[in-house]
Write a structure and sequence with these properties.
275 residues, Rossmann fold, alpha/beta, 2 domains, Histidine-containing Protein, Chain: A, five-stranded parallel sheet
């Protein structure tokens, strides 16, 4: 069956809806708790997950490098879960990670701002003003995360297949709408094709992680793609040494069949010996 991705606003009731959909369909829910449960096997601590999960950058080089690396590890966890099939990816840019996978249902759960504030205040036993601050901050943080890492407007309705306003509709109706929607013929299952694409996405993510973890490669403008196990490295790097290291990492990665080199060298840094 199609993968379900759920984007939600804080206080919209997304998590109970996601749990009930997962229970009804027999899906695995990939949320923060599920990620933390397996984080240790990926070399991530719960604190590292918390610091990187759905957070925009700090704009402090050392902190951002670690956050980007941890974020890529979180994305690898999500992709490897997705490969198993029958999953709900809750937040975390799931639909953007799987943008080339056609067999997915992109759900957005919303509610009026003041209603979300009231719900959050009741749930967490908070002063309404404090709840209002937290809900507004969450909206800004999640929108910033999606915009920075995926260059997408979090609120654009055209980026979703199904938008549910829980200010108007009950939780039960929301669950039914999602469960019914995955049977639409436009979301026809494509198991073999999707598994190949997901396998390539996983290899790409592992290569991105290896290059970032190296710590000496400025890979911001490096472009990586993997198709049927063939990795293509394009875009630009700033030295032949960075290029050599990147290609070496690609050739050494288990699962990569061959590597195509399309990297341009743009040496923009000044040479100290020239001064």
């Amino acid at each position: 069956m199609p993968i379900i991705t759920i984007s939600r606003q804080m206080g919209s009731g997304g998590i109970p809806i996601a749990h009930k959909v997962a229970e009804t369909l027999g899906y695995t829910l990939i949320d923060g708790e599920a990620i933390i449960e397996v984080a240790d096997s990926y070399g991530l601590s719960p604190d590292a997950v918390e610091q990187a999960d759905e957070k925009p950058p700090h704009f402090v080089d050392k902190l951002d490098h670690k956050q980007v690396l941890d974020l890529h590890m979180i994305e690898l966890i999500i992709l490897e879960y997705a490969l198993k099939g029958n999953v709900i990816i809750y937040g975390r840019g799931g639909q953007d990670l799987l943008k080339d996978i056609n067999s997915k249902l992109r759900v957005r759960i919303i509610a009026p701002f003041e209603e979300r504030v009231e719900r959050w205040a009741e749930r967490e036993w908070l002063d309404p003003d404090h709840a209002r601050y937290l809900v507004r901050k969450s909206d800004q943080q999640r929108a910033g995360f999606i915009k920075y890492y995926f260059d997408r407007d979090w609120d654009n309705p055209l980026d979703y297949d199904l938008i549910i306003n829980t200010g108007s509709l009950t939780e039960e109706i929301a669950v039914k709408l999602i469960c019914d929607a995955i049977n639409d013929s436009n979301l026809a299952d494509c198991k073999a094709e999707c598994k190949k694409m997901l396998s390539d996405l996983i290899l790409r993510k592992k290569l991105e992680i290896a290059i970032i973890a190296d710590g000496t490669i400025d890979s911001y403008l490096l472009e990586i793609s993997v198709e049927e196990g063939v990795a293509t490295l394009g875009g630009q790097l700033h030295s032949r040494d960075e290029k050599k290291k990147s290609l070496k990492l690609a050739n050494e990665l288990e699962g990569i069949k061959s590597v195509s080199d399309k990297i341009r060298i743009v040496e923009y840094r000044n040479n100290p010996s020239e001064h």
